[in-house]
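Standup notes
- HV: blocked on the assembly model, inputs below
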Amino acid sequence: AQSVSQHNHHVILSEAASLELGCNYSYGGTVNLFWYVQYPGQHLQLLLKYFSGDPLVKGIKGFEAEFIKSKFSFNLRKPSVQWSDTAEYFCAVNALGGGYQKVTFGTGTKLQVIP
Amino acid sequence: EAQVTQNPRYLITVTGKKLTVTCSQNMNHEYMSWYRQDPGLGLRQIYYSMNVEVTDKGDVPEGYKVSRKEKRNFPLILESPSPNQTSLYFCASRVWGGGTTDTQYFGPGTRLTVL
C-alpha cells in the first residue's frame, strides 16, 4: 500500500525567505503526485501536480516541485514566501496500476510566514 | 461555476443521533469521496465511489455509510455518531480514469462535533 510522509510538521519563516517542504512516498510503481494548500478556514486547493515528463513542475502562486524518482521524493519549493502563503500544505500520492481509486495524503505541514 | 457543495457546514449533535451530511457536485464527475481531517493525521479517506451504485471503503470506514443513487450526490451517513467522529469532513469529486486531467475538487468542509 502507498504511504506519504511529510517530515516538517510546522515551519516558521520570515517574509522573503526561501521555502522547501519535504514529501516522500513509498510505492514501487508509477505514481501521480500532488501538492494541495489549505488556507485557514478554507478547503483544499490544488497547487500543482506531476504525472509524467519534466520532473520540475510549476504551479500557481510561484510554487514549484521537483520529482526525484530515485529518492521517492516530491519536495515543494518557493524562492521567496509572502505572508499570504501562511497555510497548511499537503502532499498526496495516487499509485497507478492499482486503479485510480485512492489518493493518499500526508499529514500536512503548517507554514507560518512572519511579516 | 464548477463546485462541490456540502451541507451543513457546521453541526453539533449528540451521541447516537443519526445524521446525514450531503455532498453535491456539478461537474459530472464519476468519482467522489469523503475524507476526514484531524490534527496531526492529515486527510484520511472514509469511502469513495467510482460511479452510481459503486462504492467502496477507504482507510477509515467504521461508523460511516454512504450511498450513490445519483451521479451528482454522495451523502455521508452516521447512523449512530460517537465523540471520536468529531472531525472536519471534506467531500471531493474527481474525473475517473486518471491521466493528466486527474484533479480532485474539494467541498468547503463540514465541521462536526459529537457530544
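- HV (later): unblocked. Chain B has a mean pLDDT of 92. Chain B has no helices and eleven strands.
- Next: hand off to the docking folks.
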